[in-house]
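Lecture notes, unit on protein representations.

Consider one protein chain, 205 amino acids long.
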Amino acid sequence: MVGTRALAEAERDPSSRSAISPKNSPLLCTAKTISFPSSNFLVIAKKMGIEEEDLFIIEIGALLHDVGKIGVPDAILHKPGPLVVEEYQQIQEHPQKGKKILNNITYLAQAIPCVLHHHERFDGKGYPEKISGTDIPLPGRIISVADAFDAMTSDRPYRIRMSIEQAIGELNKNSGKQFDPKVVDAFVKIWKSGDLLQLMTSKEG
């Protein structure tokens, strides 16, 4: 099933790892090298009425949400075919690895929920803590939707990208299951307003 597979692809998205130079600290990522710029996560947050003081946390968290993938081998992230169980388990460890990195940096502690919880599911079937609903911190729920959309609308070694319309359809289909319905609703409103095309232009530029 293409849709189900595509929704899982954010888990192994190699672009966020490639944004991290081995010569530098993992925190020296730049928004222009990450496939879905952190500023675009802010558009969703603003649409949901997030207070200004919390937007910075979401911006930093979005930028660093996959920092734990520095511990995942390139062979797994770029594998052209399906992952075996052991490889998938390594992928699932990246939120905890990211949390461990940020735990050592006091001023980034508030971004940990973004890093730790962006693969939780609204129905409680995600990871690493299998929490559900609004128990998942809102920044994690926002990043989950935006990250999945980016994965679905980007080319991968194992398939071509979906159209925006197809990706929006997958978000709607999985609203209340994988995704927070309120976050999906905000994202769809951005699409209907025409702002999403500007986000895609920013991504491709």
